[in-house]
Amino acid sequence: MPMIHRRTLLAASSLMALAAPALAQGFPERPVRIVVPFGPGGGTDNLVRILEPHLRASLGQPVVIENRAGAGGTIGADLVARSPADGYSVVVVDSSFAINPSLFPQLPYDSAKDFAPVSLLATGPVILLAHPGAPMRTLQELVTQAKAQPGRFSYASGGNGASTHLAGELLKLVAGIDLVHVPYRGTGPATTDVVAGHVPLMFNGISAARPHVDSGRLRALAVTGPQRAAALPDVPTFAEAGLPDVTASTYWGALAPAGVPAPIVARLSEAFRVAVTHPDVQDRLRSLGFDPIGGPAASYAENLRTETAKWADVVRRASVRLD
């Protein structure tokens, strides 16, 4: 390489290194867009809308929430992956982001290379639910009866490849039982049919399940997570019920496009931390079944590596196919 060319590159690199902190110091200078890759009213949308006023206050700029639903969250994620790497576009995803690489070999983006983790926002337990008319009252009763009559019981999910589907596949693998999967186009229709007694079982998030459990329309058999959910303290964990390896809790996190300068990622991460740890926010999130975290970018990067590997193993062992 000619000396002048090398010196030019070194000079440019030095200028970029000096410019990054200055860029972050002025960030943000206009509204920040948060893409929710699911429809309004769901868990991810609720989480972002609870955080929005505090993010706005912390960043000192408007925060615009944009719902871009479709294809299991990949449409909204791809929109942000293709956005300028300036920190003004962020996507908040749930565990489907870690599951999708194992289910969709032709994703429009590279999950590991096209995003910069910003913050691990929250986690939430997943509950195994049964219709009150189903013959099992506990998880152990379900396992015993399912082993005695393989294929007798079915479980509903929000669709092939959804986290509620793979939670059922994980239960089957861990417990050594055979359950029949019945996919729906969303957890709403799935819940409706389980409440009506058309399907005896399903996995669901605590915020969606709690009203039906409180009213007696559904029976909660077990909940994921290291301890009982504050919103449903009478429901045992899978570990208490004898299946500690059923670890299917949902995680939510914020991602920016790859290449966003580290100081800007740090600025966004701090804004999310401040929002998530606000006492009013924590109370609201816990009432809906979220466990607030507000972790830094590094913790979310590690979480994504762990969750992606875990669900890839479940997909492989359960031979999950979307066709």
TrEMBL record:
Q: Does the keyword Cell cycle apply?
A: no
Q: Signal sequence span per UniProt?
A: 1-24
The parts of the chain that form a coiled coil are: none
Superkingdom of the source species: Bacteria
What keywords are assigned to this protein? Signal
* Magnesium in keyword set: no
Q: Which Pfam families has this protein been placed in?
A: TctC
Indicate the family of this protein: Belongs to the UPF0065 (bug) family.
**What name goes with this protein?**
Tripartite tricarboxylate transporter substrate binding protein
